[in-house]
Amino acid sequence: MTSTVRTGGAQAPSAPEFPMPRAEGCPFDPPPALKKEQEQGPLRKVRLWDGTTPWLVTRYADQRALLADPRTSADITRPGYPSSAPVRGSSFSFILMDDPEHARQRRMVTAPFTIKRVEAMRPAVQKIVDGLIDDMLAGPPRADLVQAFALPVPSLVICELLGVPYADHDFFQENSKILISRSAAPEERGAAHAKLIGYLDELMGHKIARPADDLLSGLGTRVEAGELSRREAAEMGVLLLIAGHETTANMIALGTLALLEHPDQLALLRDSDDPKAVAGAVEELLRYLNITHGGRRRVAVEDIEIGGEVIRAGEGIIVPNDIGNRDPEVFADPDRLDLGRDARRHVAFGFGVHQCLGQPLARMELQVVYSTLYRRIPTLRLDAGLEDLSFKHDGAVYGVYELPVAW
Ligand code: HEM
Description:
The strands form 3 sheets. The protein has a 5-stranded mixed sheet, with helices on both faces. A 3-stranded mixed sheet has the order 1-8-7, with no helix packed on it. Strands 5-11-10 form a 3-stranded antiparallel sheet. 46% of the residues lie in helices and 8% in strands. The protein is globular. Strand 7 and strand 8 (309-311) form a beta hairpin. By secondary structure, it is of the alpha+beta class. The protein binds protoporphyrin IX containing FE. Protoporphyrin IX containing FE is lined by residues 74, 94-95, 106, 239-240, 243-244, 247-248, 251, 291-292, 296, 348-350, 354, 356-358, 361-362.
């Protein structure tokens, strides 16, 4: 069907800016302009901050096909890569590498994230969740849920797994926030990255000297064996530390807000003691909220014919999984939060070789949180107007900065 295939950039001169602004209205929905692009066609051109015009892949099926296509690269240093901000001049470990090096490094850290190992951590996570709720209930009947609960849960868990002292959480949470923010100046992000690398490198030194039973010590052993440089190990530590707490924390806070705004759905979750129903609810919240905004970014390394277009080698590709998860071809009535639907096909964890390494852990943490918090604090309510909340429009991970709640 090559006769219907157009080549590169037919709509480029009028390409809309990406990321698109979020309009007033439902804070859980993708920007209306992004939905409009989806309605208009499977492949669209958008304009980035630097004037480049990569392809926007709007439909679920094409998104999965491209994310699984070895003719695409995640290497941020390749010409044509659609960078979300001025390049930091520093690597971000294997999330921005291609196979075989990506696979080699990823394999070094997969073991603790397997379903079996993650399930063994469930009682410890339940204890963390219960302890934080005990602390909330022991104090005044109001709190910022982000600080009191949403951030500590995944931070405590990933610290334990990596062997990072939780006492340093203010330092790494603050610098992670700057690093993933699009509005921070490049120098600011560079400084935050350098601080985190320096911190992980020093920690790696301690792990090499006195290994413990944790992931960073395992990486230390590989450094000693010459399989990984110390810099690479520190970069991997930064990736795991950030990915391990920022994402899940935002799912906890934004998920709670979405449920408070949909009391019928919250009641379903609170009143069910069926682990399968809770697991299903987690999948639907992941689909509906899809907190990784700004799209998965790739560059074509060969010509790729898809969606009636040809993506030329060297052209940038953006896969906004938030609208993939709202594709009406795949999810009926996609803008409705429906905890009873089967949402397991969502692309909130990405797809293909870079599909989220931590997904079993994230799922388990969210299952424990969502099945405990509203049951133990059944009167939990929002202690502010929706319009008073400040949303994270400027970063790679969407969420709320603060979530005032009362009970
Ligand atoms: C609800 C929580 C989470 C969400 C929504 C999420 C989402 C994602 C997405 C969309 C990707 C794909 C990136 C791409 O294709 O460019 C990804 C990759 C990754 N995630 Fe997660 N993530 C979550 C939690 C976690 C946790 C708890 C960890 C634990 C350390 C983690 C570690 C990683 C790593 C290491 C990668 C890179 C994988 C690779 O490049 O091979 N994530 N995540």
